[in-house]
Amino acid sequence: MTANSNTPSKKAVHFGAGNIGRGFVACFLHISGYEVVFADVNGTIIDLLNANPSYKVIEVGSDGTSESIITNYRAINSKTHEDELVEEIATADIVTCSVGPNILKFIAPVIAKGIDKRSEDLEPLAVIACENAINATDSLAEFIKAPQNMDPSRAQDIGKRARFANSAIDRIVPAQDPDAGLNVKLEKFYEWVVDRTPFKDHKPPSIKGVMWVDNLEPFIERKLYTVNTGHATAAYHGYNRRKSTVYDALQDRYIQDEVKKALQNTADLITQKHGIDEDEQRAYVDKIVRRISNPHLEDAVERVGRAPLRKLSRKERFIGPAAELAEEGKDCSALLDAAEMAFRFQNVEGDEESVELAKIMETHEPEDVVKMVCGLQENEKLFPKVVEIVKKVQADSQEE
Ligand SMILES: NC(=O)c1ccc[n+]([C@@H]2O[C@H](COP(=O)([O-])OP(=O)(O)OC[C@H]3O[C@@H](n4cnc5c(N)ncnc54)[C@H](O)[C@@H]3O)[C@@H](O)[C@H]2O)c1
Ligand SMILES: O=P(O)(O)OC[C@@H](O)[C@@H](O)[C@H](O)[C@H](O)CO
């Protein structure tokens, strides 16, 4: 897969040269004819990218392996070379990011400067956040337009210089082997759905593989509450049963049943809320269970369970759907079982949020934990159920 050399050169700046960044977003921008300028704070990755003119994207699955070569990129350290990056953004066609939802506020200032410097003779910059979070691009746009980052008068007519489109991005990219260098191993499946509505009066950027839709909400909720709910359920149960990978976890009959029950809980919500056909959702679930069971990915439960405070928050894969189901008096018990396992994901090596979670659990009353971590309020039907879970986990920790 290489870009057609006759394609006029277009430029994309991509924040986050990590797994999904190199393996999916940059790969598809590359085959769509963009020069990709990576921006990252990891000096080692930046140096490697600048020293190597190509890297491989390796798709692995039951029907074999296939490789693509990615070229035509540069890399800039956003911590040390901000001015250079501002110039690149001011003249780019697209800015994408896959840095993690909690990092958006840190990349916003430099994007704001680049947008502000942009000539209005150019098409507006297309900004698309590729994170596992509902409306991540809106969150990024809010940070960009905040008065500390942009003069309010410029924020008001920012639409002349930039358009912000939410997206749902789906492809499993595990942590890479330490000796993999820049190469990225990932699954064959991919889905990248982007909101078309911000480009109504302009042409949306041309990116191969993107599905443009007028209503993104069903796509992002279905993705987060199926792929990520199922994945995290397997990972947290797996972690607590000492499994190494999601594949190993799913070999355990009990965990497999818990995943299926959690995905039945979310299917009950999604099919009704978004008018999705039940058979279609069943097929989607089956496919996801097959995808996360891919033995070639060797996806560690610690990666999939990473950042438990984010994953236990209000709009995320467990509490988001469970709160809505509880309000309707529907079953959300498997989601709560998985949330309990997430509360037990404490002090995991290399995971700051799991250390923070342990401190919060040790020093706060159960009701306060539920308010702080899950963003639930006392008047919500789910609140007492999660309080009971927290009490149980706290009691078990005291016994240990
Ligand atoms: N890996 C997947 O399977 C997958 C799939 C879909 C979506 N996502 C989402 O993509 C995002 C990234 O996930 P990942 O697995 O690629 O993680 P990753 O850790 O491999 O990559 C994140 C990259 O962001 C960089 N970064 C951190 N702070 C930065 C900053 N201030 N400025 C610039 N770069 C910064 C890191 O150095 C790292 O290279 C997350 O939101 C994740 O949920 C991941
Ligand atoms: O990236 P997170 O931490 O939100 O979730 C971990 C995994 O579930 C996730 O990265 C999946 O691999 C991905 O969302 C598949 O599309």
Describe the structure.
By secondary structure, this protein is α/β, with parallel strands linked by helices. The protein folds into 2 domains: about 10-215, 3-Layer(aba) Sandwich (Rossmann fold), CATH 3.40.50; about 220-400, N-(1-d-carboxylethyl)-l-norvaline Dehydrogenase, domain 2. The protein is built from 17 helices and 12 strands. The chain has helices spanning about 20-30, 45-50, 80-90, 105-115, 135-145, 150-155, 215-240, 245-250, 255-275, 280-290, 300-305, 310, 320-325, 335-345, 350-365, 365-375, 380-400, and strands at about 10-15, 35-40, 55-60, 65-70, 75, 95, 125-130, 160-165, 165-170, 185, 190-195, 210-215. Strand 6 (about 95), helix 4 and strand 7 form a beta-alpha-beta unit. The structure holds nicotinamide-adenine-dinucleotide and D-Mannitol-1-phosphate. Nicotinamide-adenine-dinucleotide binds near residues 40 and 100. It catalyses: D-mannitol 1-phosphate + NAD(+) = beta-D-fructose 6-phosphate + NADH + H(+).
In short, what is this structure?
This protein is of the alpha/beta class.
Overall number of domains: 2
CATH superfamily of the largest domain: NAD(P)-binding Rossmann-like Domain
CATH architecture classification name of the largest domain: 3-Layer(aba) Sandwich
- Mean pLDDT across all amino acids: 96
- Strands in their spatial order, largest beta sheet: 5-2-1-6-7-8
Q: What coarse outline follows from CA principal-axis ratios? A: globular
Return residue spans where pLDDT drops below 50 for at least 5 consecutive residues: 1-7
Task: Describe the sheet with the most strands.
Answer: 6 strands, parallel
Helix coverage percent: 40-55%
CATH C-level category of the largest domain: Alpha Beta
- The proportion of residues in beta strands is 15-25%
Number of strands: 12
Written as H for each helix and E for each strand, in order along the chain, the element string is EHEHEEEHEHEHHEEEEEHHHHHHHHHHH
Distance between the termini: 54 Å
